[in-house]
Design brief:
Residues 256-336 form the G5 domain. InterPro entries: Cell_wall_metabolism_enzyme, Dup_hybrid_motif, G5_dom, LysM, LysM_dom_sf, M23ase_b-sheet_dom. Residues 205-249 form the LysM domain. There is one protein chain. By secondary structure, the protein is of the alpha+beta class. Helices cover 23% and strands 39% of the residues. It has eight helices and 29 strands. The longest helix is centred in the N-terminal third of the chain and has 27 residues, at 23-49. The radius of gyration is 48 Å and the shape is elongated.
């Protein structure tokens, strides 16, 4: 039988079979056929309504969406936002795949979660321009213009000192701007990049001054140098620290060295030299100024090289001496000093006028004598002995006590300056301090006491004024 006649025979057989069916059977077949014709499209629609896509970024599932556009639209929006923010091309290099799946509406990933996933898993890269120092990338900015502006602002931040003019300004290191592809989160604006280059760090540690602290104790605590603390806090006076005051512990170490060559006309002093003359008038180890020295003056035209504002070298181009220096002449003692023990006799401790005697006055006992003299007048040991006190003591002010042995001690009070320490052995006539006005005092003078076995005795029995 020819193949082309096979369908016609099947059709005739079906029609013949259908005609032999009862009327009721024919009705049932018609109902079933109609039901099938209606059900198939409905089932197809329902099936298609559950179709979804599993979204993967580099093989990692980030969500389930009904349509691919549900995810891609978020990507496009974020790319657009980044482009508007940085005004540069935005790309990403991750592999995004969509795998067909079936999911009910409640199983789909909501838009907020999808956006969070995009931010977490997508590495958007932008066309950027990096600043390189000696081949190392230190900062990335959105545009070439921004990178150039940072370097220009860096140069402008170093202004010449008064009376100076910058002849040349340049980078000490090799500095270049290079086009790069970078993650948007790593880009810096001009202000951030400038600060990073100037400070050399993005972390600033702060210390709060506590009771009794000084720059020395703070430097020791943090293993720093005092000079570095001073440089890091130029606005802080180390001698006037206040409780709870905050100071920086980071020493600015710029990532780029700005070198400047300046020319300046400066007035400078010429230090005087010191000449020594030997004299038998003074004991060995003692000195006295015979002629006061005086600095000279000169005006110079200098070429000064600075790195980040700090002078590193100076070359004098012209010099004009305005006043020559006057040398200082110092007498140097050659006489052998007496033994550094008590001799049993006392000499006058200083030059001056007797203004108050030993004994009762104004209702209280004066336990020594007062000798008026100018502030700075030398005070000498009345006899040889050992210094047993050197410091400040109540109404005495700055006080020196010398033990001469044999039960004798002498007191020297109200000093402006003390030049000996506890434990020092001194000889008779050796300078120990200078007249002052410290403690309870009505004017510059030396309060001098002689004590025998701890009891004050009249000094005028031992010295003459």
């Amino acid at each position: 039988m020819p193949i082309r006649k096979f369908p016609e025979q099947i059709q005739r057989q079906i029609i013949s079979y259908y005609k032999k069916l009862s009327r009721q059977s024919r009705r049932r077949i018609a109902i079933a056929t109609i039901t099938l014709l209606v059900a198939v499209p409905i089932i197809t629609v329902l099936y298609n309504q559950n179709e979804a896509f599993t979204v993967k970024v580099d093989g990692k599932v980030v969500g389930v969406v009904r349509k691919k556009e549900d995810f891609s639209s978020i990507l496009e929006r974020m790319q657009r936002n980044l482009h508007n923010a940085y005004n540069t091309e935005v790309v990403f290099n991750q592999n995004i795949t969509y795998e067909k799946t079936r999911a009910k509406d409640e199983a789909l990933t909501d838009q907020k979660t999808l956006q969070k996933s995009v931010q977490e898993f997508m590495n958007f890269k932008v066309k950027a321009h990096g600043i390189k120092v000696n081949g190392e990338m230190i900062a990335m900015l959105a545009t070439q213009e921004e990178a150039e502006r940072v370097l220009e602002d860096l140069k402008k931040s170093y202004t010449p000192a008064e009376g100076s003019a910058i002849e040349k300004i340049y980078f000490e290191e090799s500095v270049a701007i290079e086009e790069v592809s970078a993650e948007a989160k790593n880009l810096k604006n001009c202000e951030e990049a400038l600060k990073l280059i100037q400070q050399g760090t993005e972390e600033v540690k702060v210390h709060e001054i506590q009771q009794g602290e000084s720059f020395w104790t703070i430097a020791k605590k943090y293993d720093l140098k005092v000079d570095d603390l001073v440089k890091a806090n130029p606005e802080v006076n180390p001698d006037k620290l206040q409780l709870k005051q905050k100071i920086s512990l980071i020493v600015p170490k710029p990532l780029i060295t700005i070198a400047t060559i300046e020319k300046a006309r400066l007035d400078e002093k010429i230090p005087f030299d010191v000449e020594f003359e030997e004299t038998a008038v003074l004991f060995k180890g003692e000195t006295r100024i015979k002629v006061e020295g005086k600095d000279g003056k000169r005006q110079v035209l200098a070429e000064i090289v600075k790195h980040n504002g700090i002078e590193v070298s100076r070359n004098v181009l012209e010099e004009n001496i305005l006043e020559a220096p006057k040398n200082q002449v110092v007498l140097k003692g050659t006489k052998n000093p007496p033994p550094k023990v008590g001799t049993g006799t006392f000499s006058n401790p200083t030059r001056g006028s007797l203004t108050s005697r030993f004994g009762w006055r104004w209702g209280s006992k004066h336990e020594g004598i007062d000798i008026a003299a100018k502030v700075g007048t030398p005070v000498h040991a009345a006899d040889g002995g050992k210094v047993v006190f050197s410091g400040t003591k109540g109404a005495y002010g700055k006080l020196v006590i010398i033990d001469h042995g044999g039960g004798y001690q002498t007191y020297y009070a109200h000093n402006s300056k003390i030049v000996v320490s506890v434990g020092d052995k001194v000889h008779k006539g050796q300078k120990i301090s200078e007249v002052g006005n410290t403690g309870r005092s009505t004017g510059p003078h030396l309060h001098f006491e002689v004590r025998k076995n701890g009891t004050p005795v009249n000094p005028l029995k031992y010295v003459k004024y």
